[in-house]
Structures are given as C-alpha cells and as structure tokens.
Amino acid sequence: MRAFAIDEFGGDGSVHELPDPAPEEGQVRVRVEAASVNPADLAMLRGAYKDFMPHHFPLVPGLDLAGTVDAVGAGVQGLAAGDPVFGVHGKSTVGQGTFAEYATASVATIARRPEDVDPPFGTALSLAGVSALEMVDAAAPGRGDVVVIVGATGGIGSIATQLVAAQHATPLAVTRSVNHAYARELGAAEAIDYETGDVVEAVRAAHPEGIAAVLDMVGDKEAIRRLAELVRSGGHIVSMLGAADTDELASHEVTGVNVRTQATTEKLERLAGLVAAGTLRRPEIKTLSLTDAGRALAEIGERHVRGKLVIQPRRRTMIMARASEVTPI
Predict the structure, then answer these.
(1) Strand partners, 34
(2) pLDDT tens digits along 33-92
(3) Which of 56, 138, 262, 280 is 20 to 30 A from 7 (CA-CA)?
C-alpha cells in the first residue's frame, strides 16, 4: 500500500510503499478514503511522544479516518467487509496511522458512517468532532449563556461553535477578522479579532455582567487566566491544550477542565445523530492527496487553518481512473 511516512524524527516525509496491515483481535482493517490532519500528527513526527508510547518506523501519522471495512480481526462482531465507517484508530502506539491506503482500527473507537456523511466529513467528525463534543459537554452551557470560543473556526472550533449554538447559548468567536463571516455561518452570535485588539477588554465591554464559559483550542495560559476573571461563579474553563489551572479556578468557584479526547463508538454515533437531525453541518474542508501530506502538515503548523484539512490517500488513483475510464480496484 501507499502511505505517507518518515524514517526518522524531524524528517520531511514522503510516500512509501509498505505492506498492508493485518487486523488484530478486536480490530478491523479499513480501506481509507479520508484522514484528517491534526496538530498531534505534527507533534508525533517531531518526537513529542517518544518517551511515552511505542513507535514504529517508517512512522505513518494520522489518528482518524473514514472509509470502508476491508477485513475483520478475531472477535469482531457487528461489522463486516463493505461497511462504511468513521472514527479514530484507537491504537496505543505511534506510527501505524491513517495517512495510508489501509489502516487498522479498534472497533471500540469507530462507528458506522451514515449515508449523509461523506468520507471527508466523517474524518472531520472523528477526532475533532469528539473533542468538540467533550468540550461542550464539560461546559454544559444553558440557554442564553455567553460562551467565549478561542479558536472558533479551526477543526475543533468549527464543530464546537455549532454545538454551543445548538444549546441556545451565545457563542462568542475569537478568531481573525478574515474568519468572522465563517464563524457567524457556524452560529457565532459575536466575533472578536484577536489580532487587532485586547480580547479580554472586548469581552468585558460587551458583557460586563460576565460570561458562563471559555472553550480554548489555542493554549495561551496567560490569555486564559485573564479571560477566567470574566467567568461567573459556577462557570467553566475548558481547554484542549492544558491551559486550565484547575486549582486556581476552583478557588474562584470556576470549574477547570483539561480535555483528553477519548473517542468511543457512542460519541461518534451521537455526532452522526446530530448531523441527521440537521443540528450539525459539514465544516469547511480542504482535501489534498497523499503526496501533499507534507504540505498539509506544514499548513497545520502555521495554526491558521480554517475548518479541516483532509488527506484522501486514493485521490490520485481515482483521478487517473476517471481520465482513463478504468474502474480502480
């Protein structure tokens, strides 16, 4: 199979020819049709997890996927070859990822993909979608609550903003001005440009009575500390990047939560249900081929991606097939 991989930490990476993986007990092999690009992929390629998790080289990044079950391992029930799925690979090792034509995944961290969710949308709903769901669940906003969303138009933010709006709360998006129209399309009631002014003072001026929660996808601890001063007693600070000082916040009767995403079939099914109900819609998605994976990772590193970047490992084959009118195998 073709896969994007590095041979050593810090390498640029390239498309490799690797053996097709075999599913172990409790796993399925998926014919990957889409895999999203996440900041964690860039971190793993730089060796950020080398002291905590086993690594395999050539190291194939990629944590989530959408595609079709190709083979099932021992003990698997409820899924069979040909079933469309989406989710997270669920392995406790680094390097056997989803930037590949085939990948294995635990049945506990994937779900059936509905017809109204195409593969790019499916992979966007997987790691980013579950992260957004966990953040909004932790904040538990109520009707009319003002929720400041820092990084509201990125992969997680594009879904979290919609989920907050679905609670009849008031999402306040913190993002660059170029993304304000997109943030409002997602359901943001207000938007603040962090590049042109003091975010905390802008929030304070707009909501002198205080806010209910902050959802943080950026990880600037000082900025979150200052925003926390605006959170009312009983409110929440929820961070994806460890920026919530839980002890300090508790002393001010604010709950701090640092989310560590745990994808499960149940959470993925919840997201699929929200799509079916019309509550959650497809975020902006940019698709690239496997040969462009290095460029996609570089773009993620710049931290200004709107919506999701998605790798389609088979896109080149499909394009060639259309040109020659040959059905790909």
Answers:
(1) 66
(2) 999 999 999 999 999 999 999 999 999 999 999 999 999 999 999 999 999 999 999 999
(3) 262
